[in-house]
Backbone:
C-alpha cells in the first residue's frame, strides 16, 4: 500500500502531547480520522478518477475511500477499489496501475492513477491534517 507519513511541527507536537496527556488521544485521533478522510476525498480521489482509464467507467465508478485499520500509531484513509486489487470486477485495475509483472512497476507519470494521485499531491494532502491539527489546538486553548 502506498502511504504518506505526516510528521508534525515541533510547537504543534508539544501542544498535542499536552492535550493527549490531559484527556487521552481519543479526541486527537478522531480529528485526524476526519482530516485524512477529507484529504482522501477532496484531493486524492478526484485526481485518481480523472487519471484512471475510462473505457466503460467501471474503474472510475468503483474507486472509493476507506479507513485503514487503526492502531495506536496509525490513523488514516486509503483510496482504492471496492474489491482488492487484482480481484473482482475491477481486477484489471491492478495491472494498469502496477504493470503485468510484479517486477516491473511501470512509469508512475504515464501509467499510474492511484500512486500519481497520492505522490503528485503529497504537500496538499499533508497540509489538510496539519491545518486541522492547528485549528484543533487553537480552539482547545481558547476553551482552557
Residues:
Amino acid at each position: 500500500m502506498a502511504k504518506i507519513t505526516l510528521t508534525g511541527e515541533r510547537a504543534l507536537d508539544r501542544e498535542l502531547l499536552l492535550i493527549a496527556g490531559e484527556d487521552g488521544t481519543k479526541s486527537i485521533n478522531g480529528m485526524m480520522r476526519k482530516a485524512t478522510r477529507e484529504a482522501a476525498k477532496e484531493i486524492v480521489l478526484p485526481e485518481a478518477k480523472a487519471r484512471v482509464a475510462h473505457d466503460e467507467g467501471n474503474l472510475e465508478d468503483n474507486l472509493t475511500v476507506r479507513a485503514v485499520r487503526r492502531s495506536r500509531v496509525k490513523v488514516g484513509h486509503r483510496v482504492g477499489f471496492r474489491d482488492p486489487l487484482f480481484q473482482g470486477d475491477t481486477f484489471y485495475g491492478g495491472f494498469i496501475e502496477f504493470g503485468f509483472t510484479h517486477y516491473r512497476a511501470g512509469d508512475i507519470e504515464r501509467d499510474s492513477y492511484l500512486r500519481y494521485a497520492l505522490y503528485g499531491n503529497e504537500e496538499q494532502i499533508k497540509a489538510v491534517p496539519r491545518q486541522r491539527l492547528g485549528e484543533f489546538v487553537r480552539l482547545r486553548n481558547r476553551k482552557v
User: Anything to note?
Assistant: The longest strand covers residues 63-67. The chain is about 60% helix and 5% strand. Strands lie at 63-67, 77-81. Residues 85 and 108 are 17 Å apart (CA to CA).
